[in-house]
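The passage that follows is intended for readers who have already worked through the single-chain material. We present the inputs for a multi-component assembly, then the predicted structure in tokenized form, and finally a short commentary. You are encouraged to pause after the input and sketch how you expect the pieces to fit together before reading on.
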Amino acid sequence: MTVRGVHIKIQDLTHRYTAKSPICFEKTNLEAKRGEALAIIGRSGCGKSTLLHIMAGLLKPTSGAVYLDDELVDKPSPRWVMMFQAPHLFPWMKVSQNVGIGLHFAGWSEAKKRDRVAEAINLVALQDYAENNVQDLSGGQQQRVALARSLVMEPEMLLLDEPFSALDAFTRAALQRDVRSIAKRLGINLVIVTHDIDEAVLMADRALIMAGSPGKIYDELDIDLPDPRERQDPTVQAMRARLMEAFHKAAGGAPAGGASCNGHEEPEIGNGGSAKPQVVSAAAMKKGKKG
Amino acid sequence: MSSVAAPAGVFALSRLMKSPAVRRFVYGALGLSVLFVIWEIGTLFLHFNPATRTFVTFGPIPTLEAFPTLWGEGKIQSAMAASGYRMGLGLFLAIVIGVPIGILMGRSKRFRELSNSPFQFLRMISPLAWMPLAVLVYPAWDQAIVFLIAIASVWPVAFATAAGLAKVDPAWFKVARNLGAKAVHMLTQVIMPAIAFDVLTGIRLALGVAWIVLVPAELLGVTSGLGYAIKDARETLSYNHLTAMVLVIGIIGYILDSACVVLIKRYSWHHRRA
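Having made your guess, compare it with the prediction:
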């Protein structure tokens, strides 16, 4: 596969869903180098996911524009594809058919499609499952199929909207590492929207911190760490602490560990990640109060 | 030696019964045999009552004996052809009209709200209640019967299609759009395969309704088809021909329904997860 990245330029982007609804973000400007992996961190509702949808051409901004190498993004295109929180595979298709669906839309011949699909399936290490129905696969494998389905289009930019938040810790860590390494190997741009500080440190070259209402990019931090990045590595830990501190400053809260931070403002830390433990602990707290 | 052979035979049989196809066949045959025995017992009652003895040819043995005669005369074939044509055309119209209506109901909230009351109202009118009206409107009985079948079977198809569409994950459209799908792809690659199972289930229900409407509709006016064949047999007092035609109706209905079940299984993706 021959893939190259793209220069991303976001100019004075402002968005509100309807004339009466509040502004999501105002006059946001952003640039990214060719092949750069960018993470946008922020709490829920700061507009980061909306920003990503506009970058994918799935949503029209109220004003301002997104340019990729001076080309205006105003509609979806296989050249800039998005991966969502859930894989959203077509359950009536096999793995290979799901991966090849974009090529089918583009009118490729079966023979040409077969080679390219096989290549993409190899890239995500699912060659043994190519002929399985996607419903036979685990959550992590399904997200890999979604990744292959995006990569098969040879995109210049891959947009990820908290794509691993529904996965278990081990699968999540493996995918974080693999997606970064594949993107780097192919030279494509990554834009990851996440509320997981670890994810940003492990996957991105640069992290942007988005906060407030309307949302604004408050701070940015270069993540200049060698690959492969390991969670336990002291340099990774140190970077995580720095990013955490920057996040709290931006959110207007106290520094990390401060008493004034409530759960909503705090980004997710650690490798657990799923919402389940939080629910359990909240229930436990309630019980404790009653008792 | 026989004491060894018997358990081995039982063992082989029990192993054979583990195969779902064999099991289904054996139980199906067993169930039908019970039905046959009950039928024969009923005939014996007719036989022992002097008042009903003339009806004894209703029994299973005379009925089976009537088949070669009826087949030889071509009566079964011609009745099947006439009924098959009416039913096929009626169902075809129901699908051609019902599926698009169902898609509209599933996709457009306004259409769904607007159409719900009139459709539910029309659905509750017995198809046979349309009969006098259909006879007045259509010049030929054939057309009237096709109309009755169509109006009876359009609702299951339409409502099943709408229900199927309501279950379609909206994210599939977003993913498809993201990967460059055009409107025609949305229809052929997303909507159609997603709802095939529900549409076929609706068609299966429609087939049952159509089959029930067909026979009484053919009892009036027309001079061909399975319904007419029954009426004709009654009028000529050939009771075994009558029951033979009833049996034919049952067999054809069963085969058509089984074909639908095979298609539904083929296009179902809902229960794949073990």
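Commentary: Chain B touches chain A through 23 residues (CB under 8 Å). Residues 2-51 of chain B form one domain. How closely did your sketch match?
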